[in-house]
Amino acid sequence: MVTLNLPAFDCKTKQVEGKPYIFDLLRRKYVRLSPEEWVRQHIVNLLLTHYAYPKALIRSEGGLVLNQTQKRTDVVAFDRQGQPFLIVECKAPHVPLTQAVFDQVTRYNHVHRAPYLVISNGLTHYCCCVNHETAEIRFLDDFPTFE
């Protein structure tokens, strides 16, 4: 896999019928290792180890219904009251972070209404704070720490 612009970590991988799998700490099982999954696991590790997000308050591959269509958020972190705090949309390293990617996470946030959004392809990351009352979006220099 590609070296990412995220801290390296000691991940568990294995081969199943010639296909790579990585152990997902949140789902507590091995999942197919795709380039996007590689980014997702690094983002989860970053949130856990560098920003002190509690593992119990992070959900990976969570479902949501948007315009009567089932969608999946890559990573959602919740606050201590169980409300969405941060949504992360992960893309494979070769996928550019375009307006379409930002629009995707913004659409998901119409359902979740989290104050923080992140898009990342593992090489580049954009973090922003959303004021839902004024519709103002302010870009941040870093990931938000867990409150």
- Describe the strand arrangement of the main beta sheet, using strand numbers: 4-5-6-7-8-9
The radius of gyration is: 15 Å
CATH architecture: Alpha-Beta Complex
Shape: globular
Structural category is: alpha+beta
Please provide a written account of the structure.
This protein is about 20% helix and about 40% strand. The longest helix is centred in the N-terminal third of the chain and has 15 residues, at about 35-50. It has one domain (about 35-140): tt1808, chain A, CATH 3.90.1570.30. The chain is an alpha+beta fold. It has 2 helices and 9 strands. It starts with 12 loop residues before the first strand and ends in a 7-residue tail after the last strand. The strands form 2 sheets. The protein has a 6-stranded mixed beta sheet, with helices on both faces. The chain has a 3-stranded antiparallel beta sheet with strand order 1-2-3, covered by helices on one side. The chain is globular and about 50 Å long. It has helices spanning about 35-50, 100-110; strands spanning about 15, 20-25, 30, 60-65, 70-80, 85-90, 115-120, 125-130, 135-140.
Task: List the SSEs and their pairings.
Blueprint: E1 13-16, E2 19-24, E3 29-32, H1 35-49, E4 58-66, E5 69-78, E6 84-90, H2 99-112, E7 116-120, E8 125-131, E9 136-140
Keywords:
three-stranded antiparallel beta sheet; 9 strands; 147 residues; alpha+beta
